[in-house]
Amino acid sequence: MDHSCASKAQIAYILRELHYQISPKFERCTGISQSRLELLQHLYDAEEISQTTLQKVVHIDNAAVTRHLKQLEASGMVNRRKNPQDNRVTLVSLTEQGRSKILSYRKERDQFVTNLLQGFTEKELPVLVDMLQRMQQNAEQIEG
Amino acid sequence: MDHSCASKAQIAYILRELHYQISPKFERCTGISQSRLELLQHLYDAEEISQTTLQKVVHIDNAAVTRHLKQLEASGMVNRRKNPQDNRVTLVSLTEQGRSKILSYRKERDQFVTNLLQGFTEKELPVLVDMLQRMQQNAEQIEG
DNA sequence: CCTCAATGTTTGATACGTCAAACAATATAA
DNA sequence: TTATATTGTTTGACGTATCAAACATTGAGG
């Protein structure tokens, strides 16, 4: 409520605008959506994990995760199977095809992000990451 | 493509995640979506402007702007009329009701953003705004 | 054992973006 | 002035997120 609220409010606006500016361009440049690539990226690191675990790290709704993974399965990028120890949970893993394809996606992504961050110095990047993460933590607290 | 790409890629991920964390909470806290409030906010400042002008400043697709404004008109927040000098353009303005309602929305928004930026110092805010705006400018350049 | 709660996943309804194509209305130029 | 390009807006098809409700499946307590 203090005098700096105008600039604070601006931040919320810019974040929204930035997302919608980036999102379609990211997909056109890399050939895959940010969400999908993020899912694949975590599978790449994790071998085989449950959907819920995956859902929590990518901050996407369960329903959306289910739909993404179904389509990624249909396109041969991931495998899904029930956990024999607990038939409620679905375990997901990358296929060989997925594992190899992700490498080229990553290249495109890196190029894209490099463009996005043109003019940023090496010192600025960690500052930015830190601020964004702090906002994320704050966001998690809001409205239980 | 250099060694800092991991941290760069992280930024793209966080931006996406942050948007989806914020967006529903913003609406629940304030009673209006970010996009709508941003549209109203600009109308508040601008008196009467054309849809296209408005669309350009908020970085939302024309189609989405049309739909938002139609609904805001239906709910009595804005007026729309054809420009008599050029019947192609639609001029939009706030109604009295809209003008008064926006004040309470703003209060909620400011509270929300204050929570989002908890722990940020006065010096950090302009740094953050600057970085976000630079990303926006870079994003505009990508893939003409 | 057999409810009943908890956990994981899925489905359905809704909202809001994008793009492309359709429709004006206006400018331009032959 | 009449065909053609340009500009502003709208509509339709689609993707992807949210929430809430429906379905398993498993665990725990009487």
TrEMBL record, chains A, B:
Domain HTH marR-type: 8-137
Keywords noted in UniProt: DNA-binding, Transcription, Transcription regulation
Domain of life, source organism: Bacteria
GO function terms (MF aspect): DNA binding; DNA-binding transcription factor activity
InterPro entries listed in its UniProt record: ArsR-like_HTH, HTH_MarR-typ, WH-like_DNA-bd_sf, WH_DNA-bd_sf
Pfam family, one: MarR
Protein name: MarR family transcriptional regulator
The organism of origin for this protein: Fictibacillus enclensis
